[in-house]
Amino acid sequence: MTTVSEPVGQLSGRARAMLRAVAAGRAELSGGREPDLYVDGLPCCDQMVTHDLVHAGLLRARAVVGLGERADAELTEAGKAALS
Questions:
Q1: What is the SS3 assignment for 28-64?
Q2: pTM for the whole structure
Q3: In which residue ranges of the chain is pLDDT below 70?
């Protein structure tokens, strides 16, 4: 599992796949302190990795949304670096 304390170079294959989906424009994040990731409209099964990626500053929502709402997800500069 990816945690905030792990170096970016140690991301799991699942975490990298999630970041690639975000980079491809296929992902949304729900509103709230612990957002959920949706890929192609379906909820991602690994909520903990989603939370870790958001808290590590690798991805974020493009817009501020409330609870029960979704916004397109985007990679931060750190998230782009993690994939390169």
A1: EEECCCCCCEEECCEECCCHHHHHHHHHCCCEEECCC
A2: 0.85
A3: 1-9
